[in-house]
Write a structure and sequence with these properties.
The chain contains 24 helices and 13 strands. With about 675 residues, the protein is α/β, with parallel strands linked by helices. The strands form 4 sheets. It has a 5-stranded mixed beta sheet with strand order 5-6-7-8-9, sandwiched between helices. Helix 4 crosses helix 5, helix 19 (about 495-515) crosses helix 20 (about 525-535) and helix 20 (about 525-535) runs antiparallel to helix 21.
Length: about 675
């Protein structure tokens, strides 16, 4: 063999070795993300066959573990159960990885905050696919994970043949129609209260009016021989209606989830706070790993450097999912504030979501401009770009590194600052409680029952009722919040914006003036009203001024609706970022905001826009609110005026933007 030939072979072997090493490293990178998660979950199942995450206390409190353990015994085969957030990993792959780590055969079930999402059988014979199909078709969406698991276990215990038959029957019966919902909502309870009040006055009064009317129709005059009989029957009806209504409308909650206990609501906060006390970077072991060893080491180094810098201090990074079902209701600011209280240490608190990829930062007690860090963080860090969206780890390592660069360069202040108290989140203990039957709309129902009974027996009462309706139409009230996504236009004319702004601002002013003690504990109604009036220079009549822009009118509508919601105890900070006229957002979702390309943004959206984003994502851009400009053309609302760019960031940020533009502290 010649020298040149030998050298060529050596170079070839070296290239192949390098390529093999690179390929092995790449192949190991993706499983590594799930391996740590699977190892952690396998260890938990080694302690108990059921593991319930502490991240879902509003829907599945950790104290429900015993309930799931009880049901797991009914399957007739070894059963291992994981209750995790819905986006905590690839379900089938995760179950397989956990089984490999645990090394025990049986049925493995993965549930999230609402349903049984995945199941697999390893080394045992069990009709898991048919059981999941039965759960999917036979139960309504609000049944809850425990009820779904109970049905799942029932089907598994029945054997393969019965499971197949039941699954086929469920497909045929519910293929086009979903089962009836198991729980009612607050609006349903309001309807029940209204009907009960209406029957309580309407039925007895109808009896009192009907008896003499029938006597007149039959030509009888004079006093009846049994003059106490009719009042006695009316009184019996008045006593019977509440009894029947109480038995018929016996629901007390709007959800299958039980009331969380204090330990449920504190479990995750205690876990994260304890972790941060030992290490300034806490990564959630229940979620796929998004930071490798090198990224962690670099992040630790930069945190230590910032801590020792002039005007710097501690930085606490929690890489933990932020979910509507958690103790903080998915509010990063509330989560960071609670961690600050638990840890008892001032510093910069960073909340990075490993599932959605968002990053938020909150200053507590350092000499830094808190509002600048809270609202002016570059979007490339807060939400990432297209590459971050496509990456499994959301490029959180690089973005956290960029965040530390921002912190290093952040201007120092003369004295320590804080982000301020977050808006209060919904009470997790009482959020699912239905109003009492004899409350809410019960009193209006009493009144309407009287009108309804009287209207059947006299033209005068009918005229009065019609007159009242006409007067109400002349001075319309705001549309119900639930109907806003359906009825709000995408390209509203100026007449629509003026009339809606006028009605909403008038309603907020009226409700605010009538409130008693609300503003003493919640500043949102006053902040919203003040900001709306600042936009109009303190004169609500400027709504009718042709010089008032469409963007100003939209901002007034958003602020007025948020203020009224806060007064009613249903306050929110985020409205639908696709069309702010749709009202409050219900979730965050990646949406396509343009017909060109596949660019997407993680936005807060209403239920209707979420459904559109899931069913027909390419059509969602057609739902974006477009506003008229001075030249007659229409543009997306965020391009119409810089003021409206604050809307996707929340009502609180919109208020701050209005104050900044008006130079109000």
């Amino acid at each position: 063999m010649g020298v040149r030939q030998f050298a060529l072979r050596v170079r070839t072997l070296l290239v192949l070795s390098v390529l093999t090493a690179l390929f092995a490293g790449f192949a190991a990178a993706t499983p590594a993300r799930a391996d740590s998660q699977a190892a952690y979950l396998a260890d938990r199942l080694r302690e108990s066959p059921v593991y319930v995450s502490d991240q879902l206390p509003r829907e599945v409190p950790k104290s429900m573990t015993r309930d799931f353990e009880r049901v797991a015994k009914d399957t007739g085969v070894p059963t291992y159960v994981l209750v995790l957030p819905g986006l905590a990993g690839d379900g089938e792959a995760l179950l397989g990885a956990v089984h490999d780590r645990l090394g025990r055969d049986g049925v493995y079930v993965l549930l999230d905050e609402s349903t049984a999402s995945h199941a697999a059988a390893f080394g045992v014979s069990a009709p898991v696919d048919d059981a999941l199909t039965v759960c999917l078709y036979e139960l309504p969406y609000d049944a809850g994970p425990l009820r779904e698991f109970e049905l799942f276990a029932e089907v598994i215990a029945g054997g393969a043949e019965k499971a197949a038959d039941r699954a086929e029957a469920a497909r045929e019966k519910y293929g086009d129609d979903e089962p009836e919902e198991m729980y009612i909502g607050p609006s349903d309870r309001e309807n029940q209260s209204f009907l009960t009040g209406m029957l309580l006055t309407g039925v007895p009064l109808l009896i009192l009016l009907l008896a003499p009317y029938v006597r007149r129709l039959r030509g009888r005059k004079g006093k009846p021989r049994h003059r106490w009989l009719v009042p006695a029957v009316a009184l019996a009806a008045a006593l019977t209606v509440p009894l029947i209504a109480t038995a018929a409308f016996d629901q007390t909650t709007s959800s299958a989830s039980p009331r969380p206990r204090a330990m449920d609501l504190n479990a995750r906060l205690d876990r994260v706070a304890q972790g941060l006390a030992e290490d300034p970077v806490y990564t959630d072991p229940e979620s796929p790993r998004v930071l490798d060893a090198a990224q962690l080491a670099r992040l630790h180094g930069r945190i230590e450097k910032f801590r020792k810098s002039e005007g710097g201090g501690p930085v606490y990074v929690s890489v933990v999912p932020q979910l509507p079902a958690d103790e903080s209701e998915g509010d990063e600011e509330a989560f960071a504030s609670a961690l600050h209280d638990k840890l008892g240490e001032d510093g910069v608190y960073v909340v990075a979501d490993p599932l959605y990829g968002s990053i938020e930062i909150f200053n507590h007690g350092l000499r830094l401009d808190s509002l600048d860090l809270l609202f002016d963080l570059p979007e490339s860090i807060t939400y990432g770009d297209d590459r971050a969206e496509e990456a499994d780890d959301h490029l959180l390592g690089d973005r956290l590194d960029a965040l530390m660069t921002v912190l290093d360069k952040a201007p120092r202040t003369d004295r320590p600052e804080s982000s301020g108290d977050p808006y209060p989140v919904t009470d997790p203990v009482t959020e699912d409680d239905l109003p009492p039957l004899f409350g809410t709309d019960f009193t209006p129902g009493l009144f309407m029952g009287t009108l309804a009974a009287g209207a059947a027996f006299g033209l005068v009462v009918a005229v009065v009722a019609v007159t009242r309706r006409v007067l109400r139409r002349l001075r319309p009230g705001p549309l119900p919040t639930a109907s806003l996504p359906e009825v709000s236009p995408t390209e509203p004319p100026m007449t629509y914006l003026r009339s809606t702004a006028r009605v909403e601002l008038r309603a907020l002013t009226r409700d605010f003036d009538a409130s008693t003690g609300v503003t003493a504990t919640d500043r949102r109604p006053a902040d919203s009203l003040d900001a709306a009036l600042l936009l109009l220079d303190g004169d609500a009549g400027r709504i009718e001024d042709s010089a008032t822009s469409a963007a100003t009118l939209v901002a007034v509508i958003v602020l007025a609706r948020a203020g009224r919601a806060a007064l009613a105890g249903t306050g929110y900070n985020r409205c639908c970022a696709v069309n702010p006229l749709h009202g409050p957002a219900v979730t965050r979702h990646h949406v396509r905001v343009s017909a060109q390309g596949r660019q997407r943004r993680l936005l807060h959206v209403c239920g209707l826009c979420r459904d559109t984003a899931i069913a027909t994502p390419a059509d969602l851009h057609t739902r974006i609110l477009n506003l008229p400009t001075s030249g007659g053309a229409r543009v997306p609302y965020e391009e119409a005026d810089e003021l409206l760019t604050a809307v996707p960031e929340g009502v609180r940020r919109l208020i701050e933007r209005v104050r900044e533009s008006a130079s109000v502290p």
